[in-house]
Write a structure and sequence with these properties.
The complex is a heterodimer of chains A (166) and B (564). Helix content of chain A is 55%, strand content 0%. Chain A is mainly α and 166 residues long. Chain A has a domain at 54-144. Chain A is globular, with a radius of gyration of 16 Å. Chain B has a domain at 1-67 and 89-132 and 220-323 and 492-564: FAD/NAD(P)-binding domain. In chain B, 25% of the residues lie in helices and 23% in strands. In chain B, helix 1 (15-26) packs parallel to helix 7 (231-241), helix 5 (135-150) packs across helix 13 and helix 6 (179-189) packs across helix 12. The chains are: A mainly alpha (166), B alpha+beta (564). Chains A and B meet through helix 6 and helix 7 of A and helix 2, helix 10, strand 19 and helix 11 of B. The complex binds flavin-adenine dinucleotide (FAD) and iron/sulfur cluster (SF4). The site of flavin-adenine dinucleotide has 40 residues of chain B, from helix 1, strand 5, strand 9, helix 8 and helix 13. Iron/sulfur cluster (SF4) is lined by residues 201, 212-215, 218, 221, 223, 225, 227-228 of chain B.
Chain lengths: 166, 564
């Protein structure tokens, strides 16, 4: 049950500079480096033309950034999300963004072969689903498209603020 | 004689603390409730899955406050702080405690649960003892809880349904999904009796609280109508109305201070917003912080008069921690194979399943043998959208994504509804289940954190599996598909009791039969810590009832000026 261990082991970077990236604009800078890569992974997992709304239409990349930078988010997982992206970048020799769908599929399935990679992909999927299926107040699930696709709706009352205005 | 601002200080505002505050305030005593969490009012609650179910919004951040859990791995006890595992043992740390977030399926314990040892004899490796009180002592308080907290239900005669002193509940059962027709019929086919579950949810308006509006998101969420019988709605609000209650939220109690052998004189409290420390004095102190934390507080209050923790002359403090043993299972009721009821009826949201089975509470069978069994609750799978969407999306150990994921998730939501059962059986008290203080880990206030060893007795698993098999048969009879169940020795962190056993002998118990410390007359423990055995039902009705009973004794002690 040692979460921290599996988060750290397996990445060649091992809890690198991000742990010190205390100031939020620092973090934003780090995030910007991997933003497009993460967005591409999200889009690959949640493409257009599926029965559930696509990552790009739901703007889940913004959601992901706002989520992991919020103080309620586990600080280890925040770092893990960035490191996992860098790791993928390394493994694909910086080519991921220019790959076609087939190549991306292959690259991600290869990444999934390691438990580190599979944990990271699973985490990206979770955060993305959190966006698509959470209350629209969080900025994703636009016009309740996520809920409509499932014919399942959040209960009443709906939140007026994010995170009970913590 | 010293004069205090407060007659009584209560640590913790949850189910047990609320019941004590209610009783004492109504009796005219000045009470301060110290609650470490913030206040979330009825109209601030919402059904925000992200906030309530996926982030630590109503519980402490695990890097700030946590537990250390000791589990047996390959024959050795391995300790893991919960910030490492993510396995939180907090259940709701706001005004009203975990009771805000409960599902509220309630049962009384059976009369034989009060005398388990006499009834079933010794079990090797388990520290089973009889309670120092009987069901008859508790019954009036079960009834009081039913009326004050507002428990709805319907009494049906059954060999294992405890007797009651009034014919029926004042609040009729909550509304039910049509699936109960199918469930009842299927049980009847198998010669099983399904019973209506009692629930701490109002089916009718009651005073300042409105009836349930079947929001579809009950367990893990705060209630926006006041229907749920949380301590905050049912007990603290009326207590506040007396003018005798001072409710201090954001007040973390570090320890209870005593400057003599036989009295506590003040609580040392940190204001969690300003960080300032203060002392709060009272004549009498009631600890109601939920079992594991109450023990921790008493251990952290050790001093030269009580070197091993307050009230711990017996050395029993923290021992015999118990949980609710059991497990759960579920199956899919699918559109194409649904019997008896219409698919649209099944898919109607919000209404409860409200059924339990007590047939296996005590098993006495020519082949299976004679043993203490357990109870079963039926319900729909929790309706959370994100967590349902995230489930079962792996195939051959790989994540499913792309349009295949879209197919899978929409299918899951629109073509079936999953029905579930939960089993509750005795967690046998044993030497490998206890609370102590961790020697190195401290919370952000500098206090040692509780270390919980969570060993289970093999009998618990046997019983759980026995019942799970029976329940799978019920789901099969209902026509459910993809049925599975899981029974494991992993404790449910929301159903905790024990650690400060009550008993008549000060050498083997912490509390007397009124849950008053044997060693320190002005110290009571009101939550589930007192329970030597837990019964085979969820605890909270018993927690409410017992806290009302303890409160009556406190009133007596104060009236008779046994403590000044
Ligand atoms: C999701 C969920 C579902 C549940 N469903 C059911 C159910 O269906 N049936 C059932 O019987 N039970 C259920 N329960 C369990 C039920 O909520 C608890 O048994 C009950 O609330 C316990 O009451 P308590 O007074 O011991 O503790 P709580 O209600 O947890 O209250 C303890 C309070 O003490 C405070 N506290 C702790 N330490 C300190 C300190 N040092 N200083 C100040 N304050 C402190 C805490 O913040 C908390 O508010 C459920 C619980 C949860 C979380
Ligand atoms: S309205 Fe009913 S279902 Fe909703 S939280 Fe309150 S008691 Fe539960």
């Amino acid at each position: 049950m040692k979460r921290r261990n599996f988060l750290i082991l397996g990445s060649v970077l091992s809890l690198s500079p991000y742990i010190d990236a205390k100031a939020s604009n620092d973090f934003e800078k780090q995030f910007r480096k991997v933003k497009n890569l993460i967005a591409a992974v999200q889009s690959h997992m949640f493409p257009e033309g599926s029965k559930i709304p696509s990552a790009s239409a739901m703007d889940v990349n913004t959601f992901l950034f706002e989520t992991i930078t919020h103080k309620s988010y586990d600080k280890d997982i925040r770092v893990f999300i960035l490191e996992g992206a860098e790791e993928l970048e390394l493994q694909t020799k910086g080519r991921f963004l220019s790959m076609d769908t087939k190549e991306k599929e292959k690259a991600l399935r290869t990444y999934e072969n390691t438990s580190y990679g599979s944990n990271w992909l699973s985490r990206i999927m979770t955060v993305t689903m959190e966006g698509i299926f959470s209350d629209p107040v969080y900025g994703s699930n636009k016009k309740e498209a996520g809920w409509k696709a499932l014919n399942a709706y959040g209960g009443l009352p709906r939140p007026k603020t994010r995170y009970v205005a913590l | 004689m010293t004069s205090h601002k407060y007659d009584v200080v209560i640590v913790g505002s949850g189910a047990s603390g609320g019941a004590v505050a209610y009783t004492l305030c109504k009796a005219g005593y000045k009470v301060a409730v110290l609650e470490k969490g913030r206040l979330i009012k009825r109209d601030e609650f919402s059904k925000d899955e992200l906030a309530y179910c996926r982030r630590d919004i109503v519980t402490p951040n695990l890097f700030d406050e946590y537990h250390v859990i000791e589990e047996e791995v390959d024959g050795k006890w391995e300790a893991t702080p919960t910030y490492d595992s993510g396995w939180s043992f907090w259940n709701g740390n706001v005004v009203g405690g975990s009771s805000n977030f409960m599902s509220g399926m309630l049962h009384r314990m059976h009369p034989d649960d009060f005398r388990l040892k006499s009834k079933y004899g010794e079990i090797k490796g388990a520290n089973v003892v009889d309670w120092p009180i009987s069901y008859a002592d508790m019954e009036p308080y079960y009834l009081k809880a039913e009326e004050v907290v507002g428990i709805s239900g319907k009494y049906e005669k059954h060999p294992f349904e405890p007797p009651r002193s009034t014919p029926d509940f004042t609040q009729p059962p909550t509304k039910e999904n049509a699936v109960v027709k199918l469930l009842d019929k299927s049980c009847a086919n198998l010669d099983i009796k399904s019973l209506v579950t009692a629930r701490s949810v109002l089916s009718k308006n009651k005073g300042h609280r409105e009836a349930c509006y079947y929001s579809n998101f009950c367990g893990s969420y705060g209630c926006s109508s006041g229907a749920k019988g949380s301590s905050r709605e049912a007990l603290l609000m009326p207590a506040l109305a007396t003018g005798n209650l001072t409710l201090l939220s954001n007040s973390y109690v570090k320890l209870l201070h005593s400057s003599s052998k036989n009295a506590v004189d003040y609580a040392v409290v940190i204001d969690t917003v300003s960080g300032k420390e203060k002392r709060i004095e009272a004549k009498l102190f009631v600890v109601a912080a939920q079992a594991h934390e109450s023990t921790r507080l008493l251990l952290n209050s050790a001093n030269k008069f009580h070197p091993h923790g307050l009230g711990n002359s017996s050395g029993e403090l923290g021992k015999n921690l118990i949980f609710s043993a059991g497990g759960s299972g579920q199956g899919e009721l699918r559109e194409e194979s649904l019997k008896m009821i219409k698919f649209e009826e099944l898919m109607q949201t919000g209404l409860f399943v409200n059924r339990s089975i007590l047939d296996w509470y005590f098993v006495d069978h020519w082949w299976d043998g004679t043993f203490k069994g357990g109870s079963v609750e039926f319900m729909f799978e929790h309706q959370n959208i994100i967590s349902r969407a995230r489930k079962n999306n792996e195939e051959h150990g790989r994540l499913v994504w792309g349009s295949e994921l879209g197919e899978k998730v929409t299918e899951r939501f629109t073509k079936q509804k999953s029905i579930r059962f939960e089993i509750f059986n005795d967690w046998l008290p044993n030497d490998n289940c206890f609370v102590s203080l961790d020697k190195t880990h401290k919370d952000k206030y500098g206090m040692p954190v509780g270390k919980l060893r969570v060993g289970a007795h093999p009998q618990d698993l046997k019983v759980g599996k026995y019942i799970a098999k029976k329940c799978e048969k019920v789901l099969e009879e209902m026509g459910a598909k993809n049925i599975y169940s899981s029974v494991s020795p992993v404790p449910p962190q929301n159903l905790i009791a024990g650690g400060c056993r009550f008993g008549n002998d000060p050498e083997t118990s912490i509390l007397n039969k009124y849950c008053q410390s044997h060693d320190i007359p002005n110290l009571f423990v009101a939550d589930a810590s007192f329970m030597p055995t837990g019964g085979s039902v969820p605890y909270t009705w018993t927690i409410y009832a017992n806290a009302f009973r303890v409160a009556d004794q406190i009133v007596k002690v104060l009236e008779e000026k046994q403590i000044v």
